[in-house]
Amino acid sequence: MKALHIITGLGIGGAEQQLRLLLRHLPMRCDVLTLTNPGPVAEGLRADGVRVVHLGMRGNRDLGALPRLVRFIRRGGYDLVHTHLYRACVYGRLAARLAGVAATVATEHSLGEGEIEGRPLSGGVRALYLASERLGAATVAVSDTVAARLQGWGVPAARVHVVPNGIEAVRFRFDPQVRRATRARTGLPDRAFVVGGVGRLVPGKRFDVLVRAVAALPGAHLLLAGDGPERAALRRLAAELGAQSRIHLLGERDPLGDSADGRTPGIPALLAAMDVFVSPSREEAFGLAVIEALAAGLPVLHVTCPAIDDLPAAQAPGARRIGSGPEELVAALRGHMEAGATRLPPPPVVRRYDIARSAEQLLDVYAHALAPGPGQAGRAPAQQSRPGSGARSRPPAPAQASAPAPAPAPADPS
């Protein structure tokens, strides 16, 4: 089988990195087309041997991109098109239908209660999403929480399949030698108490709360990996609080390992250098960074993380859910600081989110989408998984009102 993955951009982000990791475990030929921004993840995919094409789309209303996309899909002779992120889902599903592709699958990576991909939701965004969703054969939700949100929007339950994000846990296994080396390379005192965070530096992640909390703990350091529009504001905040020497804004780092020259520590090495991990975001679709931190044996404080909030507490005993207020975070961090550094065994939830298992579940969704009859594009796929697979179709929900007709061009989810 030959599949095309269409994604809005390939800068460093959770959805982009998850696509790269999945392609390493899918037993088929896969090409990737990015509508915009062929960034660092595009380079990583090419290094993995994946063909990556940049469509050169100029914006959400670049309607000229649609016929170019249709022609590309037709020339490629793809059996299946898989779309990722809002703009790619809207344009990609329509282009695949026009190109006559047998089946289209879309993954919803970043749907919050009131925002999508970190931007506020609007009625137009929701209406267009629902109209384009009906052009596909199946929609993949990365968590039960996202699946419930999709159904709340009006996506038929039989079309929604839960395939969680995954990690390669072995990459994050704790190594004390890596801890010492990373601390030395990052300029951290060997015995310093180090708090960590990973994610895009955008308002919704609320890293300003984390900066304030660490600044309030004399002697504590913060390693914050990620980049985004809030970076300058976070740097100014650290200076205003007199903590600029203890707040380390590291920029984007490779989630899969150190840089090729070995000089820049990647996320696994940075996690080894930390003593506690914090996810202060109020809205998450999954919470992949939390799972990676747990795989590294770190205690975790989080405001919300569907990847573990949807499961029994015994699955992630090292994770503690806290409120969104800064006082509770400061108190929790102080408790860890006073108790001293401790490493935990990876909890059961880490095995649950193995990337190889996620790839197998996704293959089951592909089988549904490609099946004749109800699995054809634009119709609901069969609800039963093949024996031995783990993909879950959501149970039938009450009938929803019809979605409005699509707008002339995709609305900007902002």
Automatic annotation (TrEMBL):
Q: Which Gene3D superfamilies match?
A: Glycogen Phosphorylase B (3.40.50.2000)
A Pfam family recorded for this sequence:
Glyco_trans_1_4
The molecule here is called D-inositol 3-phosphate glycosyltransferase
* Region: Disordered, residue numbers: 372-414
Report if keyword Iron is assigned.
Answer: no
| Statement: the UniProt record of this protein carries the keyword Cell division | no
- GO MF term list: glycosyltransferase activity
Sorted keywords for this record are: Glycosyltransferase, Transferase
**What range(s) does the Glycosyltransferase subfamily 4-like N-terminal domain occupy?**
12-168
Q: Which domain of life is it from?
A: Bacteria
Composition bias of kind Low complexity appears in 372-404
Q: Which InterPro entries does this entry report, sorted A to Z?
A: Glyco_trans_4-like_N
Q: Where is the composition biased (Pro residues)?
A: 405-414
